[in-house]
Automatic annotation (TrEMBL):
It comes from the Bacteria. Pfam families: NMT1. Keywords: Signal. This is ABC transporter substrate-binding protein. Its main location: periplasm. It comes from Geothrix edaphica. The lineage of its organism: Bacteria, Pseudomonadati, Acidobacteriota, Holophagae, Holophagales.
Length: 305
């Protein structure tokens, strides 16, 4: 994944319009980075339940991109925590905290990704300098597992169900957990709104009926998550999401359910905490004014019936 200043990263939005009454037949094309991840479940669930396809990324990209002159806005917030976890290889039994990772190679989804933002913050918060570790892009799923298993990385940040697969194999253990709101608050000092649907602000302003239709479907998916068991939800996702062990996926999903926001609204203190963390880790944000009110909107979630 490239820096969001060069592309729209996880939730790059390539938007033509959607078929809509009174308009020429057009379509919306939305990209999803790692749709099989549990943190991005509302998108696939909305599709499977008969709603819209969605594109998701982490909310922090809307803040970062504003400082790069890109105007994008989160129109529905899926989660109040990253749903990520920093794992350390079982080959490194002496590593007990982030402070012990000096000299190690740390896996992230991609350079400029949210996993790198968070990994940089945890590294600095542990008292290490960024030049004491190396960040290596290793992707997600099987590629992350291979990097950890082969020793290409000593530790790394990933999401579910990848994390549970590695933990079950005994090849890794948890170093920092960001998979629940409570763990996230302890590690990051408050909520960290993460997966969301965000779009180019100018396009949203020109296509509000289409955006509303997308948000309606995704909020209904969020409500479905809250009202059903992990096993019931897993019945709606493709088999390749959980591979050969559906039970691991269901357990990981049950643990992850509390991160999802039932109504899609941004947590009150979330944007300020995200900005604090990014300003601490990213030099390009330091000294720049950010209008957080323009990085998300409640207009569409408030209109969902």
């Amino acid at each position: 994944m490239t820096r969001p200043s060069r592309s729209l990263a996880l939730a790059a939005v390539l938007l033509a319009a959607a078929a809509w009454p009174g308009r020429a037949a057009e379509r919306i094309v939305l990209m999803v980075g790692g749709i099989e991840k549990i943190i991005y479940l509302p998108v696939k669930l909305a599709q499977q339940l008969g709603g819209a396809q969605g594109v998701v990324g982490f909310y922090d990209h809307t803040v970062y991109m504003q400082t790069q002159g890109k105007a994008v806005v989160s129109v529905v917030q899926f989660s109040q925590a990253p749903g990520e976890v920093e794992l350390v290889s079982a080959r490194l039994p002496k590593v007990r905290t982030m402070a012990d990772l000096g000299g190690q190679t740390l896996g992230v989804t991609g350079l400029g990704s949210s996993t790198q933002f968070l990994s940089r913050y945890l590294t600095l918060s542990a008292g290490l300098r960024l030049n004491q570790v190396t960040f290596k892009p290793v992707g997600t799923g099987d590629s992350f597992i291979e990097a950890m298993s082969s020793g290409a990385i000593g530790a790394g940040m990933t999401t579910e169900p990848t994390a549970s697969r590695l933990l079950a194999s005994g090849k890794a253990r948890v170093l920092v957990d960001l998979r629940t709101p409570e763990d996230t608050a302890r590690a990051l000092g408050g909520p960290y709104p993460a997966s969301c649907l965000y779009m180019q602000t100018a396009w949203v302003n020109r296509h509000k009926p289409e955006v509303q239709k997308l948000v309606n479907a995704l909020v209904k998916a969020l409500r479905y998550i809250q009202g059903h068991t992990a096993a019931e939800i897993a019945a709606h996702v493709p088999a390749d999401y959980y591979g050969q062990d559906k039970a691991i996926y269901i357990r990981a999903l049950a643990r992850s359910k509390p991160i999802f926001i039932p109504d899609g609204r941004m947590p009150a203190n979330g944007p300020a905490n995200v900005l604090r963390i990014l300003t601490h880790t990213e030099r390009s944000l330091q000294g720049k004014a950010v209008d957080l009110t323009s990085t998300y909107t409640l207009e569409f979630v408030n209109a969902v019936k």
